[in-house]
Amino acid sequence: MTEPILTAAGLDRSFGGIHAVNDVSLEIPQGALHAIIGPNGSGKTTLFNLITGHTRPSAGRVRFAGEDITGMPYSKVARKGLAKSYQITTVFPLLTVFENVRIAAQAAAHSYVFWRPADGIRAVVAHTEEVLERIGLAGERDVIASNLSHGDQRRLDLGIALATSPRLLLLDEPTAGMSPSETAATVELVKELNRDVTILMIEHKMDVILSIADRITVLHQGEKLFEGAPEDVKSHPRVQEVYLTGTL
Ligand SMILES: Nc1ncnc2c1ncn2[C@@H]1O[C@H](COP(=O)(O)OP(=O)(O)OP(=O)(O)O)[C@@H](O)[C@H]1O
């Protein structure tokens, strides 16, 4: 059996007296679309930060693409093929859509060797255009990013992550603040991206999770409450209980 692209084993982190993530383990196989759900404050973002290297775990290990990356800074983890798209934090608001994606593509292209500089530039431009097509923003390539709708800014943020040709993409609430039609378009986009990128996502909207994820981890007060296929999560008595009582 091939090794999972990501393995988190016994991750733990407290902030003062708050046990934000309590002995959480995850295995994400290559090609998966895995969702993390849980109520506010259940540890989802902290878990992501422990995986990406933004926060150091007090215990536990993280393995990515066959390598132990525990405690490695995000800049280094990103170069190994792990990208994240959180809200719209990576978008340069005063640059065009094209420039935003090109800068990310160019930064990631340092690992390629070209005989002539012009070939390098051509490859970066071609890759940028391909990403814009994929995220559905080819028609907006010359628009200043801050003039895009919220939904399109989120797509652009995703495009910036994609431009680095990641092997694993972490998405934090990709449909947050979106209209129903923007949400539906993003669901389709995430499904399409999953054809060649493994995806780990935090998502609050239950209908989105159930239609998109092949596996779901439910966090509750920093601990893993349940993990399984969408239909099992939906019918699990404890998950139902915390949902119905409003604590999830
Ligand atoms: N840097 C920090 N300093 C202190 N406490 C923190 C810090 N980061 C997270 N926490 C606490 O850890 C707990 C888990 O927070 P976290 O943001 O991981 O949860 P979450 O599930 O992502 O919540 P939300 O859905 O609201 O984003 C919360 O009680 C939070 O207040």
From TrEMBL:
One of its GO terms (cellular component) is plasma membrane. PROSITE patterns: ABC_TRANSPORTER_1, ABC_TRANSPORTER_2. Pfam families: ABC_tran (PF00005), BCA_ABC_TP_C (PF12399). Residues 6-246 form the ABC transporter domain. InterPro entries: AAA+_ATPase, ABC_AA/LPS_Transport, ABC_transporter-like_ATP-bd, ABC_transporter-like_CS, BCA_ABC_TP_C, P-loop_NTPase. Gene3D superfamilies: P-loop containing nucleotide triphosphate hydrolases (3.40.50.300). GO terms for molecular function: ATP binding; ATP hydrolysis activity. The keyword Nucleotide-binding applies. The keyword Hydrolase does not apply. CDD domains: ABC_Mj1267_LivG_branched. Keywords: ATP-binding, Nucleotide-binding, Transport. This is Amino acid/amide ABC transporter ATP-binding protein 1, HAAT family. It comes from Geodermatophilus ruber. The lineage of its organism: Bacteria, Bacillati, Actinomycetota, Actinomycetes, Geodermatophilales.
